[in-house]
Design brief:
The structure is a homodimer. Chain A is of the alpha+beta class. Chain A folds into three domains: 3-84, Winged helix-like DNA-binding domain superfamily/Winged helix DNA-binding domain (Arc Repressor Mutant, subunit A); 93-133 and 244-361, Beta-Lactamase; 140-242, Enolase-like, domain 1 (2-Layer Sandwich). Helices cover 46% and strands 18% of the residues of chain A. Chain A is built from 13 helices and ten strands. Chain A has a five-stranded antiparallel beta sheet, with helices on both faces. In chain A, α2 (10-26) crosses α4, α2 crosses α5 (74-84) and α9 packs across α10 (220-241). The radius of gyration of chain A is 29 Å and the shape is elongated. Chains A and B meet through α2, α5, α6, α7 and α11 of A and α2, α5, α6, α7 and α11 of B. The structure holds a DNA duplex.
DNA sequence: TTTTAGCACTCTTTTTTGCCAAGTGCTAAA
DNA sequence: TTTAGCACTTGGCAAAAAAGAGTGCTAAAA
C-alpha cells in the first residue's frame, strides 16, 4: 500500500479519490467533464483525461466501454479504502441509542409470532407477515374536528409519542351543524385525551353523551350517535397506531414472475415497508374472528396490492387473540398449501398455551 | 357461491379449474391449445375456446390482450378458492416438527447477534449478516480417504445429523503412497468419529501419530505431518458445518442500481440464500482477528459475488469471540459509514459484557 | 344440436435499423 | 506541461419490420 502511495502523484490521488467518490454517489461511470464541473477539480478535462488514462493503465480505473466514463476497479477501491477514505468518526451521538437497541428484549408472544412468521414463510415459500395489536400502548394527546358538510366531519388525532397525525372522515346518517362538531371537539379533548383503548367504556361514553347534549342542546339521538360513531373511529385509529407488523421472506417475492417486473416489485416492497397500508387493511378485521380470510387482488385491500393475494388468520393463545399471521403472494398462489400451512400453524400455536409459552417457568433460556 | 355453482356447467368448472391451476403453475396466460395438450382435457381447442369466451363473459376469466391466452379474474380466483380448490389436509407429518420450530428459543448471544444485524442493516441501509460459529455441535460420523497422487489426497467426511457430505482436498509438501492414505482412513475412523471440535487435542493427535506409524511403518516425520494436515482440514470443515449465518435487510439491495439488473440481483440473492459460499468465505478468517476486514469484489471471495463488497468484523464479548457481523453491498458502498457503523456496533457489544449479557444470574444456558 | 377444423385477424414480442449523445484519444497550439 | 479541438467509437433509444401466439368466426362434420 505504501508502495502504491509512492507511485501515485498527488494529482492522481486527487483525481482517483474524486472519481471514486463521485461514482459512489452516482452509481454511474464518471467522465472527465463531470470532474471539472461538479467536483471542482482545477484542471481541464483534457488533462484529467490524460491522468485517467494513466490511472487506467496502472489498474485503478476501468472503462465499461469506449464512450463511457471511468469506474473504479477493485484495485481502485482497495487503494481508496486503504489510503484515501476520510477518517470516519467512531463516536456518534447515537451510541447510547445503540446500546438500547442491542439489548432489546422481546416478549414471549412476540417470539411466538416471530417464529410463526418465519416458519410460515419457509413452508410456503411466500412472504409471511405477523400483526401484533397493542392498542393499549396508544393514547391521543389532542383532538381536532373539522366540519365538512351536514353529513360528515373530520377528526384529527394527535397521538402521544408518535409522530404521525391521524385523520379520519366520519360519515353520518343524520344531519349536523358546524356547532355540533366544535362542541364534539371540546368533549373529546375533555374526556379522551390521554386515555388509552382500555379506558374507553360505557360509563365514559354516557358521560360524554350528557356533556355533548348540554353543549349543543339537541336531542338525545344526535348526541348519542355522534359520540358513538366518533368513538368507533377513534377506537379504530388506536388499533391501527398500536399495531406492529413484521415481515419475513420478502425476498421470496423475487422468485415469482409477476414480480420480475421491477416496477411491481418495487411497489410491492415499498407497500410492505410502509406497513401502514397493510396494517389498515388487516386491522379492520374483527379480532375475534376465527376464520381464515382470503383477500384476492383488489378485494377490500389497499389499492397498490392489486395482483396480490393476502391470506390471513387470527392467532389464539389461551383463548385470547394474540395477533395474526398472514401470507402475501401473487394472486396465483398455491392456495391449498398456504391455507393448510396457516391452519396448521394457528392450531399448533393454540396448543402451545399449556406448555412453555406464557408461564415461562424458571429457566427461560434453553438453547433449542 | 352456491349461486355460481348452479350457473356453471360441469364442463365449465372443469375448464375453469384447469385454467386456474395451469396458471398457478406457469404464471402465464393459458391458451386453449395448452389445455388440450397438457392438461388432458378431452375436447378440441375450438370447443374450449367457446367455453372460455363464455367464462370470460361471466367474469371468471380475463384476456391480457387479444392474442394471449386467458388468465383468471379475481372473481375466478374467488370461485376457485370457494368451491374448486381441492380440500387440503390439515394434518401433515410435519406437525411435530412444527411445534419444535414454534417454541424455538434463542440463546442470549444469538439475540445480541440478531439485534446487531438488524441495527447494522438499518443504519447503513445495506444488507447485514451475522455469523455464529458453533463448531462444537458438529461431529463426523465416518471418514473416507481417496488417494489422488503422491502429493495430495481427498478426505470425505460424513457428518452426524447433517445431510451434506463434505470433501476436502489436502495437498502435501511430501510424498505419500495409497497405502498411507488407507491407513490414515483407519486411524481417523478409530479416533475421530463422533468427536467434536473440542475433543481434538494434543494427546489425541499424538496417539493418532503412534497408530499411523505402526500401520505404515514409516518414519516419524510423515505420520506426524499427515495427521496434522488432515486434522487441520477436519477442523476447518467442522467450523464451516457448525456455522450459522443470518441475513437482514436483503431487500435493501433493491435500492441500488447495480442490482436493478434482475440477473445480478437474483444471483446475489441466491448466493445469500445458499449461505454455504458465504460461510466458507468468512469462516476462514482467523477468529481471533480483531480487525475489520474488507473484501472488495472478487478478492478472496466467492466468484458469484463479483461487484459486491463484504465488510466483516469479529465480535467479542467478555474477551471471547462470539461471532461476527458483516455488511454486503455494491462495491461502491459508502465505506466510511459502513466502517464506522461496524466499529461502533462491535464496540457497544463488547461493552455489553458486564451488564445484562452473559452473567444474567442463574437462569442462563451456558452458551458454549 | 354440438363439436371440430381452418383461416383471417389482432396484438405482443423480438429483431433490425438508423440516429444521437457521451466521452474518449490524439494532435497541435498555447 | 497544459489545454483546445476534432475525429472516432460505442451504447442507448426509437421507429420500423418481422415473427409468433392465440383468438373468433365460419362452415363442415358428427
Amino acid at each position: 500500500m505504501s508502495f502504491d502511495e509512492q507511485i501515485l502523484s498527488d494529482r492522481k490521488k486527487l483525481i482517483l479519490k474524486a472519481i471514486i467518490e463521485a461514482h459512489i454517489k452516482l452509481g454511474e461511470p464518471v467522465g472527465s467533464k463531470y470532474l471539472t464541473q461538479e467536483m471542482d477539480i482545477a484542471y481541464s478535462s483534457a488533462t484529467i483525461r490524460n491522468e485517467m488514462a494513466e490511472l487506467e493503465e496502472l489498474g485503478y480505473l476501468e472503462k465499461p466501454h469506449t464512450s463511457a466514463g471511468r469506474i473504479p476497479s477493485e484495485l481502485g477501491y482497495r487503494f481508496y479504502v486503504d489510503s484515501l477514505v476520510s477518517q470516519y468518526d467512531t463516536k456518534t451521538k447515537e451510541a447510547g441509542e445503540l446500546k438500547k437497541l442491542l439489548s432489546f428484549k422481546m416478549s414471549e408472544i412476540d417470539k411466538i409470532l416471530d417464529n410463526a412468521t418465519k416458519v410460515a414463510s419457509a413452508m410456503t415459500n411466500y412472504t409471511a407477515l405477523s400483526l401484533r395489536p397493542r392498542p393499549s400502548s396508544i393514547t391521543i394527546k389532542k383532538y381536532e374536528t373539522v366540519y365538512i358538510d351536514s353529513r360528515s366531519y373530520l377528526i384529527i388525532m394527535i397521538p402521544q409519542g408518535v409522530e404521525a397525525v391521524k385523520t379520519k372522515r366520519v360519515n353520518l346518517s343524520f344531519e349536523i351543524t358546524p356547532e355540533d362538531v366544535s362542541a364534539l371537539s371540546k368533549v373529546l379533548n375533555l374526556n379522551l385525551s390521554g386515555v388509552n383503548v382500555d379506558g374507553i367504556n360505557i360509563h365514559l361514553m354516557m358521560s360524554m353523551n350528557a356533556q355533548l347534549k348540554e353543549l349543543i342542546g339537541s336531542d338525545d339521538q344526535i348526541a348519542e350517535e355522534l359520540v358513538s360513531s366518533t368513538v368507533k373511529s377513534i377506537y379504530e385509529t388506536m388499533n391501527e397506531l398500536g399495531s406492529e407488523i413484521k415481515f419475513e421472506g420478502v425476498n421470496r417475492l423475487l422468485e415469482y414472475p409477476e414480480y420480475k417486473n421491477l416496477d411491481k416489485l418495487q411497489k410491492m416492497i415499498s407497500t410492505i415497508e410502509n406497513k401502514e397500508d397493510i396494517i389498515r387493511a388487516v386491522s379492520t378485521i374483527d379480532q375475534s374472528d376465527d376464520d381464515t380470510k382470503i383477500f384476492i387482488g383488489s378485494e377490500n385491500m389497499v389499492k397498490i396490492m392489486d395482483d396480490s393475494t393476502l391470506i390471513y388468520k387470527n392467532l389464539k393463545l389461551n383463548g385470547k387473540t394474540i395477533g395474526a399471521i398472514g401470507i402475501i403472494g401473487p394472486c396465483r398462489m398455491d392456495y391449498s398449501k398456504v391455507l393448510s400451512t396457516i391452519d396448521q400453524l394457528s392450531e399448533e400455536i393454540s396448543k402451545l398455551s399449556d406448555l412453555n409459552a406464557l408461564p415461562s417457568a424458571k429457566n427461560e433460556e434453553s438453547d433449542e
